[in-house]
Amino acid sequence: MTLKIGLTGGIGSGKTTIAKIFELLNVPVYYADAASKRLYKIDKELMQKMKQHFGDDIYNKDELDRTKLASLVFNDPQKLELLNSLVHPPTIRDAVEWMNQQTTQYIIKEAALLFESGSNAGLDYVIGVYAPQDIRIKRVMERDNATQEEVLNRMARQMDEETKMKLCDFVITNNEQELVIAQVMELDRKIKKLTG
Ligand code: ATP
After folding, report:
1. Other Cβ atoms within 10 Å of 169 Cβ, number
2. Tens-digit pLDDT profile for residues 143-155
3. What is the pLDDT of residues 142-186, one digit of tens each?
4. Distance between terminal CA atoms of the chain?
């Protein structure tokens, strides 16, 4: 049986970077964020609901207008919650479908809002990627060309890092001091042992 392992962490913790290392070890990875971007374009029911709640012009032809959507949900927690309630269920279904097709000893599902969206249900274990807040802010400011205030705003909408890590079964520390490749390889060994 293929073990289903979640991979999560706050913005800038390095989830995607760590997921790529697992991919190098031939572990299939499902990227929830990329999947939802795809679903906005191809899932007819989701598209229809998006138009119903955010207006027809939230799409330009079949292309979601991300800037418009961001401006609508920014600073409006209720609209953000509505958006999440529309996109999370089809993404969770899509992930389950994908996971059921895998045949390796284990797979990874990478998602920023794993616990917040309830998509940890059905997973066997969860790995948390931990990095101190100052490093996360610096990384995201550099990667997204964002201001400190913008990054702090995005962080404020996620579960706090310490609480999130407590919910995880394993933690990888990605603080640019401890070697992450060694930690991933160690976890790969541990997880393979769990599969028996
Ligand atoms: P988000 O939730 O915003 O998608 P994330 O948790 O997936 O973020 P990454 O995109 O993997 O984080 O990493 C954020 C940035 O930090 C990237 O530019 C990445 O290259 C860099 N980064 C991550 N880990 C390290 C590291 N150990 N050393 C140097 N740079 C790193």
Report:
1. 15
2. 999 999 999 988 9
3. 999 999 999 998 898 888 899 999 999 999 999 999 999 999 999
4. 10
CATH code assigned to 3-194: 3.40.50.300
Nearest CA to ligand 1 atom 26: 176
The answer to whether 126 touches 8, Cβ cutoff 8 Å, is yes
List residues near ligand 1 (CB under 6 A). 9, 11-17, 112, 139-140, 143, 174, 176, 180
Tokens of 19: 């997921």
pTM: 0.94
> Mapped to the 3 state alphabet, what secondary structure does 49-97 carry?
HHHHHHCHHHEECCEECHHHHHHHHCCCHHHHHHHHHHHHHHHHHHHHH
Structure tokens at 101: 């097709």
The three-class DSSP label of residue 29 is strand
33 Cα nearest atom in ligand 1: 4
Q: Residues for the chain: how many in total?
A: 196
Q: Which atom of ligand 1 is nearest to the CA of 144?
A: 18
Cβ–Cβ under 8 Å, residues 95 and 108:
no
Domain boundaries, the chain: 3-194
Atom of ligand 1 nearest to the CA of 110: 7
